[in-house]
Amino acid sequence: LICHSLLEQRFLDMEARHSQELQASQQEKEQLQELLDRQSRLVTLLEGQLASSTRNSTLLQRQQAALSDTVQQLLALCISCVLPEITSSSKEKVMIFRDCADIYRYGITENGIYSIHLTNSTQTIKVFCDMKTRGGGWTVLQHRFDGSVEFHRSWED
């Protein structure tokens, strides 16, 4: 009887501990589920914000491209106002080019000094254009202090 009572007491103790552990596990499961739900809501919120940011970025890129086009058009208009078409004695129009490649595409294939119009500016400058090397149309930039150095130099110089 004592043995039976002792076994019964142990069984009841084990059952109580098991019940407590089960309850603790259930609470932990509920807490983890709440955490998972919160994280899922945050992920959904962040996905929405990312989609919104992506749309805004795309819109800004389109607006920037449109603005850049508008600026280029306005500069072209300014150039035509500030730098009217110059006519020579033979009444041929003098073209305004952006670089030596433009000049080459226009059909001029001789090396020489030409006037080009700087992008985003109303200024024109004279540059040397190499129209013979590797397909032509190269803008050659060189800074000389007093002009005593020969322009045409080898790579060894």
From TrEMBL:
<dbReference type="Pfam" id="PF00147">
    <property type="entry name" value="Fibrinogen_C"/>
</dbReference>
<dbReference type="InterPro" id="IPR014716">
    <property type="entry name" value="Fibrinogen_a/b/g_C_1"/>
</dbReference>
<keyword id="KW-0037">Angiogenesis</keyword>
<dbReference type="GO" id="GO:0007596">
    <property type="term" value="P:blood coagulation"/>
</dbReference>
<dbReference type="GO" id="GO:0005576">
    <property type="term" value="C:extracellular region"/>
</dbReference>
<dbReference type="Pfam" id="PF25443">
    <property type="entry name" value="ANG-1"/>
</dbReference>
<keyword id="KW-0964">Secreted</keyword>
<keyword id="KW-0325">Glycoprotein</keyword>
<dbReference type="InterPro" id="IPR002181">
    <property type="entry name" value="Fibrinogen_a/b/g_C_dom"/>
</dbReference>
<keyword id="KW-1015">Disulfide bond</keyword>
<dbReference type="InterPro" id="IPR057439">
    <property type="entry name" value="ANG-1/2/4"/>
</dbReference>
<keyword id="KW-0175">Coiled coil</keyword>
<dbReference type="InterPro" id="IPR036056">
    <property type="entry name" value="Fibrinogen-like_C"/>
</dbReference>
<feature type="coiled-coil region">
    <location>
        <begin position="15"/>
        <end position="49"/>
    </location>
</feature>
<dbReference type="InterPro" id="IPR037579">
    <property type="entry name" value="FIB_ANG-like"/>
</dbReference>
<dbReference type="GO" id="GO:0001525">
    <property type="term" value="P:angiogenesis"/>
</dbReference>
<feature type="domain" description="Fibrinogen C-terminal">
    <location>
        <begin position="91"/>
        <end position="157"/>
    </location>
</feature>
<keyword id="KW-0732">Signal</keyword>
<protein>
    <recommendedName>
        <fullName>Fibrinogen C-terminal domain-containing protein</fullName>
    </recommendedName>
</protein>
